[in-house]
Structures are given as C-alpha cells and as structure tokens.
## 1
Amino acid sequence: MTLTMNTITYEKQGFIGILTINRPKAMNAFNNEVVTEVYVCLESLVKTDIRCLIVTGAGDKAFVAGADIREMQHLNPSEAAAFSRAGNAVMALLEDFPVPIIAAINGYAMGGGCELALSCDIRIASENAVFAFPEVGLGIIPGFGGAQRLARIIGIGNAKELIYTTNRITAQDALRVGLVNAVHPQEQLIDKCMEMAEKIAANAPTAVRVAKDVINKSMGMELHQSYGLEVLPFSACFLTNDRRMAMDAFVEKRPKDAFSGT
Ligand code: CAA
C-alpha cells in the first residue's frame, strides 16, 4: 500500500511502513495540514499487518523543523490551544501505536520535530542531525508534549537545560545524553533503520506489541505499582501459535519457522 497526501507520503515494504513528512521547502515544518494528515495516515495503519513503522522527513536537510512559525504567527490563544491539542493527539497516537516506531532523524529536529522523535520508540540520527527546543526564544513553550517526554528520556536536568537555553546540539551530543539510540552517516540512515525494523519484524508480532504496551504502561507507574503488570499479557502470549512454534523449535533443536502473527 502507498499513500500520497499533500504533505506526507506512506509506503510499505514487506512488513515495514515508512511515513515521510514531505514539505521540504519549509523544512518539513508542522502546520495544521501536516498534523491532520499524519493523524489520518496513522489511524488508517492501526489495523494493517505492518510490524514496524519508520518515520522520517523528506530531503536531506530536515527531519521536521518544528511547528510552522508562519502559521503560528497569526494564532490567537484558542486557535493555539486547538493546534496544541491536535499535535498532542498525533504524538499520543504515535506513542500508543500498536507496533514499534523508529524515527529516522535525517537533519534538523527542532521543537515539534524533536517532540515527534520523542514520541517514537527508537530514535536513529544521521551525523548531520541537529536537535533543539527553540520555543522559549519564540515566546512560547513546547506544545506537543515534548517537555514531559524529554525529561523522561534524557533526565530532568538535561531537559531543562535544552529547553531554557534553546541550545542546538549535534547528533553526537544527542547520543551522549541518550536522546538518540545511534548515529549513522546520512547516506546509510534509512538502510540502518530498515535493518533494525526488519529485525523487529522478524520477531513474534504479538509478543513485540505486548512488550511495547507493557513498557509504555509501566512508564506511568511507580516501580512497585508496576510489579505484576506483565502477568496477564505474559500469559496471553501463551495462547499464540507463534509462541508454541518457537518453543517447540528450540526444544526440538530445529530452526524456527517464520512468525505468522497468530
Ligand atoms: N516554520 C516555518 N517555516 C520554516 C520553519 C518553521 N519552523 N523552519 C524553516 N522554515 C522555512 C524557512 O522560513 C525557509 O523558507 P523560505 O525559503 O520561504 O524563506 C525555509 O524553511 C528554509 O529555512 P532556512 O532558510 O531558515 O534554512 P536554514 O538552513 O538557514 O536554517 C533552520 C534551518 C535552522 C531549521 C531554520 O529554518 C530554523 O531555525 N527554523 C525554525 C526552527 C524553529 O524555531 N522551530 C520551532 C518552532 S516552535 C514549535 O515547534 C512549537 C511546538 O512545540 C509545537
């Protein structure tokens, strides 16, 4: 399945989906149209057979250079609230998306672009990627859940420094603070992300989905409250054909079949 909208494209290669934000002339900035189209595309994918999704930006300069400042320039507070709500809904849809999402960060990830990356499960950057939260320099704050997610991922001290200073950091600095999982030369970025996506897609689909759900749920809990969270989901995996096949193959010392997702 392929899908082309005004500001995004979607294609599928085997079990892997690739969603590209496609406004290269505006550094793929998030205007209302992008936010709506990403939402519509993601909703249409929830029930497909993809096992991993890659999100990236068109061109070789920007992943997403944040919210569209030309559009925000004219917003009143209630329009700003609607924009923030819509952006938050997209980020929540990504975070709760049933299968893992890899952000392939191929250039500038500013403001809302960083927020997009933070809503994905795994972030892989190209060497030329640049990260920043420029919002307070524009008289606003991150509006798509970025402050909350950033603090959870890189720690509150690092998050406050990035947000209060608006400092730009390189891909290597992002790696050092744990904002990204890996850095690759730009020309290898998509191949490296595909490699990881294929590895994920080759594992038992139900188990991967359940693992994502349990990890996400546990992030909202105190550690002691989360004990036992996995008992029901763990036991539910025992109903699957994939679990039976993989364990039988191990015990019988033979290679596993491909996982069927059942
Ligand atoms: N909104 C609107 N247009 C943008 C944009 C944005 N966020 N970022 C870049 N563009 C446009 C530029 O206006 C320019 O358009 P024109 O050619 O029509 O003039 C085009 O993209 C290319 O940009 P530059 O000429 O500036 O390219 P550069 O290589 O010199 O700089 C950049 C690249 C560092 C990303 C710079 O464009 C920049 O700083 N962009 C703004 C980044 C920013 O502040 N983003 C945060 C927005 S706030 C936010 O995201 C709030 C939220 O939480 C939701």
## 2
Amino acid sequence: MAPVPTATTPVETTITEVRPAPTASSLRRFAFPLFALVMLVLPALPVPDFWISQSNYIGLYALVALGLVLLTGVAGLISFGQAAFVGVGAYTAAYMTVTLAASPWLALVVGIALAVIAALVLGAITLRMSGHYLPLATIAWGLALYYTMGNMEFLGKYDGILGVPTLTLFGQDLGTGRGLHVVIWAFALLAAWACSNLLDSRPGRAIRALKSGATMAEAMGISTFRYKLVAFVLAAVLAAISGWLFAFFQRTVNPSPFAISKGIEYLFMVVLGGVSHVWGAFLGAGVVKLTEDQLQVLLPRWIGTSGNFEGIVFGIVLIAVLKYAPEGLWTFVQRRLPRSDRRRDWEGAAPLPAREKPARGEPLLQVEAVRKQFGGLVAVNDVSFSIAAGDIVGLIGPNGAGKSTTFNLITGVLSLTSGQVRWRGESIGGLPSRQIARRGISRTFQHVKMIPEMTVLENVALGGYLRGSSGIARAMLRADRAEEKRLFAEAERQLARIGMADRMHELGGNLALGPQRLMEIARALCTDPALLLLDEPAAGLRHKEKQALAAVLRQLKGEGMSLLLVEHDMEFVMGLTDRIVVMEFGTRLMEGTPAQVQASPQVRAAYLGTEH
Ligand code: ADP
Ligand code: MG
C-alpha cells in the first residue's frame, strides 16, 4: 500500500495489478458442467484401469486440497495437519465397518462428527491467538494423532485395520475401481460446487475478508473468530470425507498415509495448483499425483539407487513456484478462460432492512475523557466532546495529534486506557468493534482497508453484512440468491451515490487511492449508519473528486446523517462542518465553530509551531 498522503504531500498512488477474484461465475456456467460430465462418465469409457485408479487418487486428494484452499488460500490460515483429519475419517470408516460391522454411511456421519469436534476444540484453543499458533498446533495435532493411531490396540497399531469391505450403494457393490470412481468424484465435484457457491456469498465474503486482517472485517460487524473457525471446520470435514472414501478404496488403513509428511504434501498440492482457487486444488492434486508416480519410477533409475527422491524434487519445485508463480498453476489456465462480469440481476430487488434513524438533535455520541496510552506515550489525553444527531463535526490537528487513535477508541478498534464512550445513553467503551458497528456507528480508515482481490461491488457489499442473514449452509446450496440481490442492489446504490457505479466490476486493488477512499465511504454507507466517522476522506483525491465528495457529504447532512470528520484540507473542513474539535499532542486544544477556530491564535500556533 502506498503511504497515505496528506494535503501537503503530493499524491503518489501505486496501482498494483490484481488478478480476478475466484468467483468462478463464468467458469461454472460452461467449463464446470463439462468437467463434471467427463469425470462422471470416465468409468464407462474404455480407459485402462490404471487411469481410473489414478483418477480416484486425484479426486481423494482434491477433496483435502479443496479444504486447504478455503483455509489457507482464502482465509489465510495454514494447517499442516489435514492428513490427520483424513485419518479420522479413514479410521472411523475402518473401525466401524470391520470391528463394529456398522453401515459405512453411518461411519461417514460419525467420521464427520469426530472431525468437526476435533477441529472445534483445536480451533477454539488456537484461532484466537495470533498467526503461527495454528500451524504449530496443527503440527502437534498431526503428530499426536499419528502416534495415537500407531499405538492403539483397538486400531491395530502400526499394522492398522485390514479387510475393510467395499462400499455398496442401492445394493450395488461399488468395488475399488470404476464404481467407486463415481462416488469419489460425485463428492469432489459437489464439494467444489458448494465451495464456489460459498465464496460468492455473504458468509463467503466474510471468509475472504479474513486474510486482510481483522480490523476492517470486525468494523463491518463480522466476527472474524467465528469465520476462522468455520473455515477450519469445513476444511476438516472435507479431509474426513476424503479419508472415509480412502478406506473403501484401499480396503485397509494404517497410520502412514496420515503422517505429517502427507499433510505437507497436501499443502504443496494447493500451493502448486493455486492456493486461492477452487480449481487450483484439483489441478494441484492432479499434477502432484501424476508426476509423483513418474518420479518414483524414473528418479531411482537415473540416480541408480532406490529412495524417496521425489520429495527432494517437490521441495525444489515448491520454492520455484513460490518465487515465480505464487498464485499457482491455475492462474495460467484462468488467463485463457473468458472472464465475465457478474450479471447485473438485482434490478428491482427489495431494499434491505433499514435502521430507525435518531431524531435530529438527539444526543448520539458522548466521548468522556477518553485516554489511550501506548507504553509511555499518551496518544489521547482525556479528550471529551459530543455529537448530536444531524451534527457535522470536524476533528483536526497536526499529524500525530491523536485523531485516528480517537476514532479507534470510539469504534472499539483500540481499548480505552480510561474514560467512557456513550452511544445514545449506553456505554459502549470496551465493546468489540463489531458490536459497536451493530449499533450504527460506521467508519472509514486513514489507511484504506479493503480486499484487493474482490470487486468494488463485493467490497462495498461487505458493508451490508449485518443487514443480511444468510449462513454457510444456505450459501453453499445457493439458496441465498434473493438476499444476495438485495445486498448488491444496495451496494450499487451506495456506489452510484459517490459516482462510482460504473466501476463496480473492477477489482478493488486496481483502483487508485482516491477511488479506493470513495469505495470505503460507499462501504460504510452500506452499513446504514446513524453516525459516520471519516478519517481523512479527501486525502489523495483530485480536485474534482473532492468537490464530488463534499457534495455527497452535504447531501448526507441534508438527510440528517451525523458525521465526524478528520481532514487536513481546511477549505474542505471549514465549508462543511458545524463544529470543530482541535487536537494537539493528544489533548483537546479547543472546540468551536469554523469561524472561531479560524480566528484562534492557539490553533494557528499549533499548526505553525509558533506562539504569537
Ligand atoms: P493522527 O491521526 O492525529 O495523525 P494518531 O492517532 O495516528 O495521530 O497517532 C497519535 C500518536 O499515537 C502518534 O504519536 C502515534 O505515533 C501514536 N500511535 C498511534 N497508534 C499507535 C500504536 N498502535 N502503537 C504505538 N503508538 C501509536
Ligand atoms: Mg490519523
């Protein structure tokens, strides 16, 4: 991200090219049905058994890899322990069908339930912690489960469980080849369809927002912890389904396919294939399986001794991929596919539910002696002011005065050292920012926070998160389309308001800084706020854009919206605000009308650094 310019520094915008988002809407329409058809009729074609067996492996691997796309590529969480979840599914299948003589389908339900429980426990402990705790925990989990499987008498120790029956469906024995192929690929394709649907939905956008840090998502009302947990559980379930199928494919289970090294191989597959793309999972699984077999035969022959040399080759390839194609091989395929814009199918959708607006003049926000200390630095020093409904208040002061920190205290991004914030009489100091967002306070950020690989429209629709209700299951089954239309209609309406409707299909990351700021305002408006906090909205805007922004803010004022505005452009602030709070070195220097502030020698001194 480019450094955020102030009114006094020249605007420098870096436009980084970001590739299309994995909405897969164009692919699904044509390529997906064709691919699905080919995979499902493959067993009926006169292809060699070896092909079918390879294809079975690819489908099984792809299921696990798909979970890692959600978890690692989309949500930004790394797990080395997916092989252990595969083991849970496989051992449940083997133990229940062999030892307990239970139905394989019951074993599927139990296997999934066990994986969900394990993922919930593991996730609840680690997902609240920062960054690397999850990868470490998944390694520990992978090792622990591996040795558990290898040492439990009832699981057959390292010999495992032999004699797993074949799967039967409607009285048909599916065997381990062509019949099972249909089942494996039905699961894999169904999972791909459900995951594509999910990524293109309200909860899916919340998951896609995780990678860019929690602050913005939480400010839009999203519980980032909850969605991290969701991604982790979904990945575990996909792995467990793969393991369940694996047991009936191999007809025997032992600990070695579920070791930590296999977990690393799954990660390798998705990184190679394309870690943030649903089809990257399939491509990666295919490429790894097919080359692995070749390498296992060729490498010992070339080198002259036997050994697992393919691991070395994969290690080298992994480094090369990370360096030269970090988005994976799928991007090379994707570039050749046509990209179609989302169909604008939301015309006439019913408006989203709206909040009951406070009456003009009603006391809204009371900031009471709020204080924030960073170690020895008092960034905000017992600052007080209040805002009534319909007020446009400016918050000005030199750089480092504590304006953004004050915003963060009001919106719950930072915790208060002391003091209190009241919203319509209720104390909200100390609430998490998503709870504060729920009450009708929305904001933009001085340093733009958005999802670069989402379209402008999707970024803005994130703001409507709290006004929708579709959950994971509805989204996966595509039963959320009516609500999606309402969300997109609202997002477009807010974009049109700031003059950006014609850019809704562009990727957020491809916008210059000015339009990115406007997009953030549209996103904040999409939350249907009662109070809007704008942190330097005009910074980086061209003159024309600034005028347009001022017009929008005046219109909002006319509609009775309350605004708190941090801005360095004095002309902009003076022309717009009813009242101005001036800060310097964390303290409130004065408060008054624009005319009073302009006339104040104190304020002039603060800005010029001289005392007259
Ligand atoms: P403004 O928005 O008025 O330019 P800020 O609120 O961003 O100022 O910063 C006020 C002071 O607090 C600055 O000295 C800044 O360096 C410091 N500060 C802000 N955030 C942090 C933080 N997370 N940790 C430590 N110091 C911080
Ligand atoms: Mg600031």
